[in-house]
Design a protein that fits this description.
The chain is an alpha/beta fold. The protein has two domains: about 1-100 and about 280-305, Alpha-Beta Complex (Quinone Oxidoreductase, Chain A, domain 1), CATH 3.90.180; about 120-255, NAD(P)-binding Rossmann-like Domain (Rossmann fold, 3-Layer(aba) Sandwich). Helices cover about 25% and strands about 25% of the residues. The protein has eight helices and 15 strands. It has helices spanning about 40-50, 110, 115-130, 145-155, 170-180, 205-210, 260-270, 290-295; strands at about 1-5, 15-20, 30-40, 60-65, 80-85, 90-95, 100, 135-140, 160-165, 180-185, 195-200, 215-220, 245-250, 280-285, 305. Strand 14, helix 8 (about 290-295) and strand 15 form a beta-alpha-beta unit. It starts with a strand and ends with a strand. Pfam families: ADH_N (PF08240), ADH_zinc_N (PF00107).
Length: about 300
């Protein structure tokens, strides 16, 4: 079967090649992939560190072509959205059934393929904060794939949403259209008293964002796109009036239980137009180097999708 395989000798580090079809474990279904979305982490760290010839890819939408041998999961012919640690950049992938979500027949595969990492991470990060109805929530790195879903989901949950981006003049209108009540150029521009932060950037921005939390506020460290470490000044962790019981939380999506249920719900919201997939780049097999370059160079805001059918 065809797949995008790691080959660091070519532009973008990926080329189309032939590989053997995967052999599924008893709790895995085989899915014919129709569309896959690319994530910043896998096109930077993944391509850079994976052995040559590896088939990467976390996100994929497609159709079940072989049901799991243990009887779990959807039947043959079912349209699905899938998440796995690899294999999404191929014509067929093996997926554990707990990480498969059945999608509506009317759903468009390219839109659905954006869900697993981006929307799934945003949803679980909001869960870490707790109920957000009436709460003030800051989303840093709001123009990225996770950030755009986070803005929409926080607004859907009833939060007052503040979106942070390096260029509010350029991206403010789009972020407000997604649900942001305010758009700022960084956490230091926020007026304190935040109930929650979804931080996609790390480094100094995380430190600044933590300083804006109010009492019982939670910062969820989702991404580390800055590539910088965090250095907290003396006193940053002191408690006091309106600053007591603050916390920083980390998590990894692939370690979460119940992902299949999340994928089903998110797919319905995208199919119904409640959530926008925010696709800003779309192409085919042979265009992947263009997408990789745009992601690595930070020229792409939103999601990149490859149509593999």
């Amino acid at each position: 079967m065809r797949a995008l395989i790691v080959d660091r000798s070519v532009p973008g580090g990926l080329r189309v090649g032939e590989v053997s079809e995967p052999v599924p474990a008893p709790n895995q279904a085989l899915v014919r992939v129709t569309a896959t979305s690319l994530n910043y982490g896998e096109v930077t760290q993944g391509i850079e560190t994976a052995p040559e010839g590896t088939v990467l890819g976390w996100d994929a939408a497609g159709v079940v072509v072989q049901a799991a041998a243990d009887g779990s999961g959807p039947s043959v012919g079912t349209p699905v959205v899938t998440l796995e640690e690899s294999g999404g950049w191929a014509e067929v992938r093996a997926v554990r059934t707990g990480w498969i979500g059945v999608v509506p027949e009317r759903a468009e595969p390219s839109a659905i393929s954006t869900i697993p990492v981006a929307a799934g991470t945003a949803l679980r990060a909001l869960h870490r904060i707790g109920p957000v109805l009436g709460r003030r929530i800051l989303v840093t790195g709001a123009t990225g794939g996770v950030g755009r879903y986070a803005v929409q989901l926080a607004r859907l949950g009833g939060a007052h949403v503040i979106a942070s981006t390096g260029d509010p003049a350029k991206h403010g209108e789009a972020l407000r259209a997604l649900g942001a009540h305010e758009v700022v150029s960084g956490p230091a521009r926020v007026d304190g008293g935040l109930d929650g932060v979804l931080d996609m950037v790390g480094g100094p921005q995380l430190v600044e964002a933590f300083d804006q939390l109010g009492a019982k506020g939670t910062l969820v460290a989702v991404g580390h796109s800055s590539g910088d470490g965090e250095s907290f000044p003396f006193g940053a962790m002191f408690s006091g009036p309106e600053r007591d019981d603050r916390s920083i939380v980390t998590f990894m999506l692939l370690f979460c239980d119940g992902l299949g249920r999340d994928l089903v719900w998110l797919a319905r919201q995208v199919a119904d137009g409640v959530l926008s997939p925010e696709i800003t780049w779309r192409g085919g097999w042979n265009d992947v180097s263009e997408a990789v370059s745009a992601l690595v160079e930070r020229r792409l805001h939103g999601k990149a999708v490859l149509d593999l059918a």
